[in-house]
Design brief:
Blueprint (H helix, E strand, L loop, with lengths): L1 H18 L15 E2 L7 E2 L6 E6 H4 L9 H4 L5 E4 L9 E4 L10 E2 L2 E4 L2 E2 L6 E2 L9 E8 L12 E7 L7 E9 L3 E12 L2 E12 L8 E15 L2 E16 L6 H6 L18 H5 L2 E17 L2 E17 L16 E21 L2 E21 L2 E2 L2 E2 L5 E22 L2 E18 L9 E19 L2 E12 L22 E12 L5 E13 L2 E7 L2 E6 L3 E14 L3 E14 L18 E10 L5 E10 L16 E14 L2 E10 L7 E4 L9 E3 L4 E11 L1
Parallel strand pairs: 7-11
Antiparallel strand pairs: 1-2, 3-10, 4-5, 6-9, 7-8, 10-11, 12-13, 12-39, 13-14, 14-15, 15-16, 16-17, 17-18, 18-19, 19-20, 20-23, 21-22, 23-24, 24-25, 25-26, 26-27, 27-28, 28-31, 29-30, 31-32, 32-33, 33-34, 34-35, 35-36, 36-39, 37-38
Length: about 700
């Protein structure tokens, strides 16, 4: 029945979209020319690039949303699956064309960048929670071959740009509240004068959590200063901070528990004293995060040439209490259930861009170098003292973990008449160094270095002013992340023998504007990967990995946008993906589907606003097919689902005051479904439930002086 419901939802969304001439929201890829920088590192019209790239602007990011999770806005992007795990201890689960779907926590396989500062570390692990959505001007989402030019773990690129402060001073206050005790307040100020601009933002988010043991408090702050130092130069300084104290981790649950009570935690049957206590409660699973960073970008123009240099530095402190069922029988190699690390990170990215006449056309060249480093002081402790669990016990791990990358790169684009030819080359070197200072279980010190050269070729042909055809190809790679080399298959010792996964990307696409205010993008693609990194075993928060056989991803992405009579709009974003193991390994048969990857995803929207844009409303549809939580596809798959969301908003202007209100109801029909899965959990606690019908109300007041 759920499969039929999904099919009906897809057919209805397609019919609605095309019956209204592919009505589109002007917040995403309208027919208005959209300028992007992610694909070529210089300002280009997205319509004229041989790449799959979507732009989510501020109106979409704040479309009757509390701006807590990037998944709120990313749902409208084809090829991207962004899941709110209802677990603020583990961040969002984001995958691009299947890359990153098996991440146990945070984001891997997809590169995250904010105002030029990476939110992804040199090893490939990133944190979307560091994005300040309140100040976002736009988010660019790059997929396919062009994303490989960002180096290691670039199955896709998500780049956030905050707005530049302009004009008279402004002060704004936002407040929202919703289901499960969720509430957020935000205060920001901006303005500019005499070539100096400022942007300041601070927010607090609290929630009791939908799932058992999932309460969280998040404090976030962001500052941006801009200086016009001359007619040809500009300096931008940014600072950001994130703090989460004792964020509860609800863990995953088994299939039986999800069917019995989606909000419940998994009962710890090994605890005879309190037989109804969950694993999360027994071990008080939680995480505390303190993250801060500084960035500086200098841009200087020399005629048509441009020099851009970005430098950043930051610190991240994490203390996490995990659940283990071994209890007192933990082996000598056991590193403990408490993770405690402090990370210092820094890096630079400098590039020179120059356009030149060449062969009766224009050649735009960019030469650059990127370098980054993260240094971890990491300790591990037992998570019990005597018979009490969830407390820091004896030291079981003490080490220094360093990861560095050095990546020179070059990109070229030659345009003549109807032809645009693109090429790029990047050479990446990523080095891991481990200095083990806890020798009671042996010395695990060591190092490993990975090198890879990434080439890119692309061509676009302008068939007519409203129709572009393109093709592109590239080679990409993914090293293991630092957390993925922590344990060997036996659960002890670093696994320096892991090889990087290497991939070959091919894409064919069309970009069309068949009529005024209508835009259609479509792409077909194939990705072949060797030495795919997969879960070897996973239990109680400790996961080890291995290299598997080849994988194959083949898919189609389609998006359609337009406006109709300036009052109605709509959007369709459809993804179809066949992601399978091309060769078998172990108990996994050839043709088994990659875990955590749905075969199809859909976003549809129909929106209305009055002529003066004082009022608006929209109906959204989000649908995904089933997905498996294990490589062998033997466990119960998370069923496919289709949900509907409704939003309304209003705006008033009173002199220098602007007031806005909104209301949103998500999962309007109260569907029960699994929002995300924990891939490969050895205890079969794969499933993370999504909320039923839930609501949020919000309002903002802004004053311009």
């Amino acid at each position: 029945m759920k499969r039929h419901a999904l099919a009906s939802s897809i057919i209805a969304a397609l019919s609605t979209t095309y019956a209204s001439s592919a009505l589109a929201d002007d917040a995403v890829n309208t027919a208005t020319p959209v300028v992007v920088v992610s694909a070529s590192r210089t300002e280009q019209l997205s319509f004229d690039l041989p790449a799959s790239i979507d732009v989510i602007d501020a109106s979409r990011i704040g479309a009757a949303q509390p701006r807590v999770n990037a998944s709120e806005a990313l749902a409208a992007v084809p090829g991207l699956v962004a899941q709110n795990r209802q677990n603020y201890a583990q961040d969002l689960q984001i995958s691009s064309r299947g890359f990153g779907a098996r991440s146990a926590f945070g984001v891997r396989g997809v590169r995250l960048i904010a105002d030029g500062v990476p939110a992804t570390m040199p090893d490939g692990q990133g944190q979307a929670a560091t994005f300040d959505l309140d100040m976002a001007e736009r988010i660019e989402v790059l997929r396919g071959p062009f994303s490989a030019l960002y180096g290691n773990h670039s199955g896709g690129v998500i780049q956030l740009f905050t707005r530049d402060p302009k004009g008279a001073p402004e002060l704004e206050f936002n407040v929202s509240a919703g289901s499960y005790g969720s509430r957020k307040t935000d205060l920001n100020a901006s303005g500019s004068a005499g070539g100096v601009g400022y942007l300041l933002d601070a927010s607090r988010f609290d929630t009791d959590g939908y799932r058992s043991h999932s309460a969280a408090t998040r404090d976030q702050a962001y500052a941006k200063l801009t200086f016009v130092t001359s007619a040809t130069s500009r300096l931008v300084l940014t600072a950001g901070g994130l703090r989460q104290n004792d964020t509860q981790d609800p863990l995953g649950v088994t299939w039986a528990t999800w069917q019995r009570d989606p909000r419940a935690g998994e009962i710890d049957t090994t605890d005879p004293q309190t037989p109804q206590r969950t694993f999360a409660e027994r071990y008080d699973t939680r995480k505390s995060i303190k993250h801060q960073q500084l960035g500086a970008t200098w841009e200087q123009r020399f005629g048509d040439d441009r020099l851009r240099m970005t430098a950043y530095v930051g610190n991240r402190r994490v203390i996490q209490y995990q659940s283990f069922s071994q209890g007192f029988q933990a082996p000598p190699s056991h590193s403990g259930g408490v993770v405690d690390f402090e990370r210092d990170f820094h890096g630079i990215d400098a590039n020179w861009s120059m356009p030149r006449p060449f062969l009766d056309g224009t050649l735009r060249s960019t030469f650059g170098i990127e370098a980054g480093a993260s240094d971890d002081e990491r300790k591990g402790y037992e998570n019990f003292i005597g018979s009490q669990f969830g407390v820091r016990g004896r030291l079981r791990r003490d080490e220094q973990d360093d990861v560095k990358n050095l990546d020179p790169y070059a990109q070229f684009e030659w345009e003549r008449d109807a032809w645009v030819l693109s090429a790029g080359l990047r050479h990446s070197r990523v080095t891991f160094d481990v200095d083990d200072r806890f020798l009671a279980n042996g010395n695990d010190s060591g190092s490993v270095s990975y090198r890879h050269t990434t080439p890119l070729l692309g061509v676009l042909y302008k068939l007519n002013p409203g129709l572009n055809l393109y093709a592109s190809a590239a080679r990409g790679f993914e090293t293991p992340t630092l957390s993925e080399v922590f344990y060997s298959g036996a659960g002890s010792g670093f696994n320096f023998s892991l090889a990087p996964a290497q991939s070959t990307h091919l894409e064919l696409g069309v970009k069309a504007m068949p009529m005024d205010a209508v835009r259609i993008n479509a792409a077909v693609f194939q990705v072949k990967t060797s030495d795919e990194l997969v879960v070897d075993s996973s239990s109680g928060g400790r996961t080890s990995y291995r290299n598997a056989s080849a994988t194959l991803r083949q898919g189609l992405e389609l998006s359609a946008d337009a406006d109709w009579r300036r009052n109605w709009s709509g959007r369709l974003a459809l993804s179809v993906l066949r992601a399978v193991y091309d060769e078998g390994f172990g108990a996994v048969l050839a043709g088994s589907r990659l875990p955590g990857v749905p075969n199809a995803s859909l976003y549809g929207e129909l929106a209305w606003k009055d002529a003066a844009e004082r009022y608006g409303a929209a109906l959204e549809t989000i649908a995904n097919t089933k997905l498996y939580p294990d490589d062998a596809n033997q466990a119960n798959p998370a069923p496919g689902y289709a949900i509907a969301n409704l939003r309304v908003q209003a705006r008033q202007q009173f002199g220098g005051w602007r007031v806005q209100e909104y209301a949103r109801v998500n999962n309007l029909l109260d569907r029960g479904y699994i929002g995300s899965v924990i891939v490969g959990d050895s205890n079969r606690r794969y499933y993370e439930a999504a909320p039923g019908r839930n609501w949020v109300l919000g309002a903002s007041v802004q004053y311009r002086f």
